[in-house]
Amino acid sequence: MRRVSRITIAGVATAALAVTVSACGTSSSSSTGGGKSKGIGLAYDVGGKGDQSFNDAAYAGFEKAQKDFGVGGRDVEPTDNESDADKTQRLVTLAKAGYNPVIGVGFAYAGAVKEAAAKFPKVTFGIIDDNQTQAKNVADMVFHEEQSSYLAGVAAAKATKKNHIGFIGGVDVPLIHKFQAGYVQGAKSVNPKIKVESQYLTQTAQEGGFSSPDKGENAANGQIDAGADVLYAAAGLSGQGVIKSAAEHKVWAIGVDSDQYKQAALAKYKNYILTSALKNVEGAVYDLAKSVIKDKKPLSGDIRGSLDNGGVGLADSNPTFKNNAAMQAAIKKAEEGIKNGTIKVKTS
């Protein structure tokens, strides 16, 4: 079983029996009865359930779909230092057990989804954050992360008192470059002279860039020491360390993927979480399950979330953020520009 140091993760209650699947990590299964489909298979990305961000957003969609459609489900955790073959076997095991759809959370499942989908043509597979596999039974659930990150950059530039902000990416890969590019561009649209610290925690996911709160905390400490007073992290579980550091230094953090202001495990830090750049992973998982289980018309191909369709955006749970008229006006103007095409957001 994977062992990751976490910052007081609140346990997520599931009516589940933990089992160990050979070469597939740790899984839990639950059943709410009824329905023709056995249920939804969900395989988590690095960091696993409890990251209060990317994986937990997928879990929320998985849980809601089970409840609404009266089916069971199995969600499976990753293991340390696993291979692509392990990921493939995880998806194959879920498909063979009768789960449909089967969803890989994260771009690391690209090869596994391609291989498993070819073996089980009657099962719908979904992958979040990758669209390399084009097949009739594969739904590629991707997002314009750069758009919400641009808005986060606008917010950061409006919130900083030092004209000095920071970006911390979990792993140095093209997906996370989109977060950085949008954030920097958005901030510079407000103040072209703003200083932006940028750092990636690791070169590969295997080194823990998405699963190490201590790495996030150390990076945040360094950027704060350098003068940054607003930090945006696109780093999965590692982002919790960034939020912790920001709160301890009484500077702003900007969350990612989920509304981190509302996460129970981060409650003691929430007064320092300005906003979060949202990615509707929950909705993507839910909609794919609905298409297979209820509508009987499985989604496939590119399904991309944007500002236009509500797939990305900014959370406004923090009253300090929501009630800042100047900040909200700047964000609204930026959002309108992105939607009407007068603002072209960079992806690298």
Write a structural description.
- The protein is an alpha/beta fold.
- Helix 4 packs parallel to helix 5, helix 4 runs antiparallel to helix 10 and helix 6 crosses helix 7.
- It is built from ten helices and 14 strands.
- The longest helix has 17 residues.
- The chain has an eight-stranded mixed sheet, with helices on both faces.
- The two termini are 36 Å apart.
- Strand 1 and strand 2 form a beta hairpin.
Short description:
Helix content is 37%, strand content 22%. The protein is of the alpha/beta class and 348 residues long. The strands form two sheets. It has an eight-stranded mixed beta sheet, with helices on both faces.
Helices and strands, with pairings:
Blueprint lengths: L16 E5 L3 E6 L8 E5 L10 H16 L2 E5 L7 H13 L5 E4 L4 H10 L5 E4 L9 E6 L1 H15 L4 E8 L2 H17 L4 E8 L10 H13 L4 E5 L4 H11 L2 E6 L15 E7 L1 H13 L7 E5 L6 E3 L4 H4 L2 H16 L8
Parallel strand pairs: 3-4, 3-5, 5-6, 6-7, 7-13, 8-9, 8-10, 10-11, 11-12
Antiparallel strand pairs: 1-2, 2-4, 12-14
Helix pairs in contact: 1-8, 2-3, 4-5, 4-10, 6-7
Task: Provide key terms for this protein.
348 residues; alpha/beta; 6-stranded mixed beta sheet; 10 helices; 37% helix; globular
SSE topology string: EEEHEHEHEEHEHEHEHEEHEEHH
Proportion of residues in β-strands? 15-25%
- Name the overall outline: globular
Percent helix: 25-40%
Instruction: Enumerate the strands of the largest sheet in spatial order, edge to edge or round the barrel.
Output: 1-2-4-3-5-6-7-13
Termini, distance in Å? 36 Å
Estimated radius of gyration: 19 Å
Derived from helix and strand composition plus strand pairing, the structural class reads: alpha/beta
Parts with pLDDT < 50 across at least 5 consecutive residues: 1-27, 30-35
Compute the average pLDDT. 90
* Largest sheet properties: 8 strands, mixed
Number of helices: 10
Tell me the total number of β-strands: 14
Multimer state: single chain
